[in-house]
Amino acid sequence: RNNDNPLPTKENRRLEITWTVATAIILLFVGVASYGVLANENVTYQPSEELENEDPVVVHAEAYQWGWEMSYPEAGNFSTGTEIVVPKDRPVVFQVTSRDVIHGFHVPEMALKTDAFPGQVNTIKTVPYEEGTYQGYCSEYCGVAHSQMYFTVEVVS
Ligand code: CUA
After folding, report:
1. What is the ipTM of this complex?
2. Ligand 1 centroid, distance to 23 Cα (angstroms)
3. Does ligand 1 lie within 6 Å of residue 127's CB atom?
4. How many whole angstroms from 31 Cα to the centroid of ligand 1?
5. Is there a contact between 27 and 96 (Cβ–Cβ < 8 Å)?
6. What ligand 1 atom has the least distance to the C-alpha of 143?
7. For the chain, what is the HEC assignment?
């Protein structure tokens, strides 16, 4: 036999295992990194896509232990605390961030969900098409009063 066709020696097997493990670790890192990128691009569009180009209402939602501060830059940074009122049939953009630890912005009935990270703004967009008051809450465990972090989104015409 020549050296181009090595026998499955103990040493070869050890090398093979080493490379398999190294490849697995590299793939794991790539996976984790790309998940991080994808997770921050969760822009939600809801039905009325023809309204997409209309001037959106921008709402800032800042989470803190343990509450929310919502504000409308459009209305001169008018702060609304935990009750936000948005118009029906007009695009609404939520810019979600945190003042301290990681929280979660979640309005199940409006299919809105994104993480609230300190030092980062996550944007989600929707077009509310049904009037009503929708309950929102914090979806990431953030300490003793996590379950008190309620807010409401009221959709009016
Ligand atoms: Cu904020 Cu849980």
Report:
1. 0.99
2. 37
3. no
4. 27
5. no
6. 2
7. CCCCCCCCCHHHHHHHHHHHHHHHHHHHHHHHHHHHHHHCCCCCCCCCHHHCCCCCEEEEEEEECCEEEEEEHHHCCEEEECEEEEECCCCEEEEEEECCCCEEEEEHHHCEEEEECECCCEEEEECCCCCEEEEEEECCCCCCCHHHCEEEEEEEC
Q: Are 69 and 79 in contact (CB under 8 A)?
A: yes
pLDDT in tens, the chain (157 residues): 556 666 667 777 787 778 888 888 777 767 666 654 444 444 444 444 554 567 899 999 999 999 999 988 776 666 778 889 999 999 999 999 999 999 999 999 999 999 999 999 999 999 999 999 999 999 999 999 999 999 999 999 9
The finding on whether 138 has its CB within 6 A of some atom of ligand 1 is: yes
- Whether ligand 1 lies within 6 angstroms of the CB of 116 is answered as no
Ligand 1 centroid to Cα of residue 64, in Å, is 8
Phi, psi of 31 (to 5 degrees): -60, -45
Q: How far does Cα 98 stand from its chain's mean position?
A: 12
Minimum CA distance residue for ligand 1 atom 1: 103
